Amino acid sequence: MSQFPHLLQPLDLGFVTLPNRVIMGSMHTGLEEFPPERQAAFFARRAEGGVGLIITGGIGVSELGVLGPGMCKMTNEDEAKKHSVITRAVHDAGGRICMQTLHAGRQSYHPMNVSPSGKPSPIYPFPPQKMTAEMIESELESWVNSAALAQHAGYDGIEIMGSEGYLINQFLTTRGNERDDEWGGDFQRRMRFPLELIRGIRARVGEKFILVYRLSMLDLVPDGQTFDEVITLAQEVEKAGVNIINTGIGWHEAKIPTIATMVPRGAFTWVTRKVKEAVNIPVSASNRINMPSHAEDIIARGDADMISMARPMLADPDWVKKAAANHEEEVNTCIGCNQACLDHTFQLLQSTCLVNPQACYEDQLIYVKTDKPKNIAVIGAGPAGLSFATVAAERGHQVTLFDADTKIGGQFNIAKQVPGKEEFNETLRYFGAMLTKHGVKLALGKRVGADDVKDFDEVVLATGIIPRKLDIPGLDHPKVMSYLDVLRDKKPVGKRVAIVGAGGIGMDTAEYLVHDHSHVPSSLDIREFCKEWGIDMNLVARSGIEGIQSSVSPSPHQVWLLQRKAKKIIGPGKTTGWIHREALLKKQVQMVTGVEYRKIDDEGLHIRVNGEDRVLPADSIVICAGQEPQRELQAALAGMGKTVHLIGGADVAAELDAKRAIGQGARLAATV
């Protein structure tokens, strides 16, 4: 009997029945700009995994509407022919797929972009041209044509991208639309663009073609839609011929996190529920939903009819198949880190996944059963060692995993204690399940010497890192601690704390110190999260935020976060760094850059900033300034003639990088 009856229940749309309630949501991976065979392999793998409906990354509907120069579009039959490779692969794998049709409007990285009123975006560099009435009609026809070409290419339907601040959102709000003609003014005229679009598409493609509309339910920017306007639009798009409404939350311009790991799971399903209650077609929830049991609960309690997940399908293409087999413990959970997906996308790199290096490399990183099993020792059960051990064992090697600690996890055991990084527990649960499934032998709680592994064919050193020693007078003062003293060993920390080093470890340590650990953090409490970021859960405030003041619980420590470099402290992630910074500023953390460390004594930490000497009266001084590799076994093993591989921190001890560690471990394991 299924543990997830609501999630796995078929959905009858009248002309087609979807096998379950799981949508693989849209995300731009960078594969769109490669030959279609690579994208075909990517989507087909998810179809094999049982996803009910796949939605592609955003495909431009015209030259003006593309995300950037030379980026993917659907404007002619030659482009449709290339897409047929994708649809054929998905259908051969037993799946169904919709193409997301997108017009970026002013959110385009090219100088020919357009918008309803010519108002520029605060985060995109190119000012848009104001659309004439003739241009609006032309772009509408281009969109309809793109939908028809998608049907010709074999897609089962399309998703109309009506959220995230793209062109449709720009038409719907006074933030983007200051027109006073038939395309702007009151809301009836502002919503004319999406309604004309839907009617035009439905007339062109017929009734037996899935139309999904991505509805912005909370804009989270000034001058966005009221919730009454959102409901009105939802009802009107249903009348116009849409089959499914999907949830969109927040513009790209919003200064509120919506999908990062510090956002609680299912943080916005309460909004989706209100829309679901107002319409008669299926409504899908999205944003920070990553496990079958959570998805099941959302549908069972009536918050949504379907669940749309993008990044969780990067993390585990067999997510649905594992749920159907009642093996939730084997799901490789998306931790919402964004480091290998969105961070890559915004740097114009190909996406992958921190916890699944095969993502987007399905045709390149392949785990083939070995015909020459080896007896391999892995020393270090952190992310790199776990990744190598599980993949090597899956391929058929005999693997023994050693660690001086009594539990697996390495640095993840430290990181998972930081408020906002609780999802790291899921990665350790997954690796634990894989160690058992693939028969990895564990040898924990013992520091390994060279003689302990002399009988193995090969040895993998994944021993991680140790904190780097700094040259600051007074470093041996009782006030001084390492981040391991704080996060791992739970040593007492004074009321006033100076943190030396503002990289990822420094920011994590600050985040840990500014929370009262007797209270549930906002990353686990939806109401606390909305209060902290100023979101109106009563849905009265325009855009969900106007006039709402954020409120945070006070920090139990006064914290200074210090950095040698003179540049702004922003955090390590391109798409999440600003969130960490804003969260710390809300907790009154003082961020100081361009710091020269002078000495430590009973007075505190003596520093010089811009030529001015200062003394920070810190009770505790926490060192978070880099690390060095642990490789003490390497020479001894090499002297014994052993083949030794270095991975993770033992190889490169730069800023802690689980993405590199897990990827390096998997790639080595695929070749030994």
Automatic annotation (TrEMBL):
Keyword Iron: yes
A Pfam family recorded for this sequence: Pyr_redox_2
Gene3D superfamilies: Aldolase class I, FAD/NAD(P)-binding domain, NAD(P)-binding Rossmann-like Domain
GO molecular function terms attached to this record: FMN binding; iron-sulfur cluster binding; metal ion binding; oxidoreductase activity
Domain NADH:flavin oxidoreductase/NADH oxidase N-terminal residues, every copy: 7-328
Segments forming domain FAD/NAD(P)-binding: 375-634
Cofactor needs: [4Fe-4S] cluster; FMN
Metal-binding keyword on record: yes
Keyword terms of this UniProt record: Flavoprotein, FMN, Iron, Iron-sulfur, Metal-binding, Oxidoreductase
Family, as annotated: In the N-terminal section; belongs to the NADH:flavin oxidoreductase/NADH oxidase family.
Record-given protein name: 2,4-dienoyl-CoA reductase (NADPH2)
